[in-house]
């Protein structure tokens, strides 16, 4: 059963507390719901539902191209309730989190978000996530397909007196695009005061909400955590604004690809280190000096000397998309890497991809061939993002 | 002129010993926005069930199989130049290729329009 977890700022009196984890495998069994709180709402809006990460999710409504371009120009509403929302609290949670994440968690200011990585002992990436400090507690958003494994890792790795609440009573939606701020401000006054990678508690529809200025499309926008019982009301209020349309998983994927953002299970996995993935910004200065995170010897050595391979963007000649699994070949026709994400960019109207190549060949402009189903494609290493980010940064 | 359909969502319009082949409205809807098509060149010999053309949407790539055996008479350059034509008019201007039938008997195993539309409803 899900626990009622207050989703506002840290409030010692109102904050629901979960059971402390024991480190034993017993834990609480989590029967996986197959439908998300907005399931019937998506269907009523014409969403075509597919299974993803164990849930039925809308892949598209009117079409990926239109939804993608709408988000880049207006505001798109995404249901990301399949993602795992975790609240970690207990004595010295910040230091405990630094034993599993390479980010500077202690130095994270209140209500600020940081992109981080859950690492294994070899420095491989178990998951990527967003961590927010809420007072002495930490709110983590992890990937849907990996959340149960992540919780297990945390239970085994973190001190026994820390609590990990899986906030299963919460829904999560993202409103993304240049008009998101005006739309949301009209419904929930005060959100426009947030800057990129900052969150705060709000109250609307009779419920507490946690809203952060973040997302995974490259656009300005917000992620809204709201009790599942109230999410349909929120979704209705948002789409009542003509600037908002519901957007499916298909456009979410093409948007994040254009933004050069990696997707776990495709561009990132346990064979990938943060240095290979080009995510060294997630390892702040103090952690580089002090180490003390999983896989630190390997990762610090790679920071110093470079990793053997690197994640790169690829511009693909012609119109035909080159997709995940295609081979990346050097001038001699030898395989030097693989495409990990690829598709057609609706904004650029041409195919783009990302993948891993030997670091020596990772310079933008380097010409490479791609091979898909026996057919060769001309390609060039491209700087990322493919489409510029438009985050609302401080002072902007 | 009779139109037949396959379980792989191709249609075949037969006129004498030649046929025109494309993908169904159901197929283009399932694929979504089509961004790339590749059609066979005239003179190519195709066996029934052989990969004949490629159609790719923003998200997915699919092969179009030849529903019949024969020699390609013409590939439709119009869908190569503007692949969204397949979305707009899948069972008309958005055809993929014309083929000379080697064995009209192969058509017996295909569905007629009513059977296809009924079958699609069960998917």
From TrEMBL, chain A:
Pfam families: GCV_T (PF01571), GCV_T_C (PF08669). Residues 1-16 have a biased composition (Basic and acidic residues). It comes from the Bacteria. Residues 310-387 form the Aminomethyltransferase C-terminal domain. Belongs to the GcvT family. It comes from Sphingomonas anseongensis. The keyword Cell inner membrane does not apply. This is aminomethyltransferase. Its EC number is 2.1.2.10. One of its GO terms (molecular function) is aminomethyltransferase activity. Residues 39-286 form the GCVT N-terminal domain. The keyword Iron-sulfur does not apply. PANTHER family: AMINOMETHYLTRANSFERASE, AMINOMETHYLTRANSFERASE, MITOCHONDRIAL.
From TrEMBL, chain B:
The keyword Transcription does not apply. Binds 1 lipoyl cofactor covalently. The glycine cleavage system is composed of four proteins: P, T, L and H. The modification N6-lipoyllysine is found at residue 59. This is Glycine cleavage system H protein. The glycine cleavage system catalyzes the degradation of glycine. The H protein shuttles the methylamine group of glycine from the P protein to the T protein. Pfam families: GCV_H. Residues 18-100 form the Lipoyl-binding domain. It comes from Sphingomonas anseongensis. InterPro entries: 2-oxoA_DH_lipoyl-BS (IPR003016), Biotin_lipoyl (IPR000089), GCV_H (IPR002930), GCV_H/Fam206 (IPR033753), GCV_H_sub (IPR017453), Single_hybrid_motif (IPR011053). The keyword Cytoplasm does not apply. Its cofactor is (R)-lipoate. It comes from the Bacteria. Keywords: Lipoyl. Belongs to the GcvH family. The gene is gcvH.
